[in-house]
Every structure is written in structure tokens, then in C-alpha cells.
Please model this.
Amino acid sequence: MAPKPWILTTPASRGIGLQLARRLLRTTDLPVVATARKDLDDTKARILDGLDVDHDRLHVLELDVTGKHLPKRKLADESTIAAAARHCASSFPATYLHLAFCIPGILHPEKSPAQISRAHALATFETNTIGPLLLIKHFSPFLPRRSTALYASAALPARAVFALMSARVGSISDNRSLGGWYSYRASKAGVNQLARTLDIGLRQSAGGKAMGVSLHPGTVKTGLSEEFWGNVKGEKLFSPEFAAERLVEVVKGLGEGDGGRCWDWEGKEILP
Model:
């Protein structure tokens, strides 16, 4: 019997990523690779807390898309990303990556051009756009090829999916009246372009066996959006658990031709 494929959730130390790792451990039988910048043992304990699953299925690896915690780091240091990818190559040598949620994100909201900070804008693009780009570089090679036999499970999408975290505000066509949030909007528009470009490459390398997409989880009750909770109607402010459930269901529902596009938590397309 061929080895089972594996799942990647990065980062997974809190919020949506933590709940994605927990949900995928609970609802699938595949190995789950979760990442955190630090405190790996604490992250593993939070993910496994109360779950009746085989703890050996969970691999928690150090990964920081910015490298900010490293001494003498360079812009968007790749060393922890490359090391995590090498670990996966050695841990899963004869199988493939079936599902990846790449969801790093920060927000510095600017209401006017006068509030734009070079440092904050650079940090936003480094985390929100360059981070996913480097994750594509190091982890998309694990996706299936045309010749790969795919693993079938009702708990998983029929095709391998490499999902990047976007946002509705990354849509240029949707930006009709509110404006603002210059760096965040632009960084998420870039994520949508990355997903489209990745998907085009996967059509060539994997045929219909893998796709790249971007996702919008809605407004989720995490630290990123805390400043704006009061502006959101209660029924539209989602828990991380609900967001994780919806994102998994959305990728499970993707079919042929759905790659390269941005999907919201309801499974509705957000136009570029």
C-alpha cells in the first residue's frame, strides 16, 4: 500500500491556523505538518488539547516567513522555510502534499496616505506576500505530478490544493467606495496573483491533479482584526473554529476549473 499523503498548515500557533490543524487531525487520517515561529512544544500541546487522535500524526516544525527572530537576519530570511521543507522531504519521501493552507498575515491599516509607514508597508508585504511566495517556492514541489496516484477520501478535496490566505479587500474590482488600507489591500491583491500564477504552473506539471487558490475567511475573531470587532455585526464575526470549518469545506468543494481564483468562506468567488 502506498504511503498516505500529508497536510501542511502554516502558521498554526493560534487563530485560524491552530483550528485548521485541529480540524484536519480530527476529520482526516493523514499526517499534519503544523508550523510556528517559536514555542513548538506549546503549539503542539494546544493543537492536541482534547483531541482523541494519534499524536504521532502531528509534526510541529519551526518556520518563520520573515526570519525576524533570527540573529543577523536578512529580508525575508528563508532558512527556517528551507529547513522545514527538508524535514518534510525526509519524513514523507514516497508520497505527496495533498492539502496546504498557507496563511501568514499582518495588518497595519492606513486610513489615508499620510498614515503610510515605510517600515509597516515593508513588513506587510514581507509577511503577507513574500511569505506565501517563499512557501510556494519550497513546498509546491511536494504537490502531485501528472503520474501521481491521488489519495481518495470524503474528508479531503478530490484534487490536491495549495491554498493561500487572501481577503476580500484584495479585490481591485470590489474596492469601490471604502478605500484605505493601502498596504494590506495591495499585499492581498498580490496573493491573488500568486495563486493564479501557481495554478497555471500546476496545470502544466500536475494536469488536473493539483490547483492553487486563494481564500477569504471573512472577519474572524483573531488578533489581526481585534481593532475592528466593534464594527462587525455579531453574526458576521466568526470564531476561528467556524472559519477553519468553512475553509476546509470550501476547498473540498472545488472542482475542475476552480483553480487560480479567490473563494470566500461561503464558496462564492471574489473577482480580482
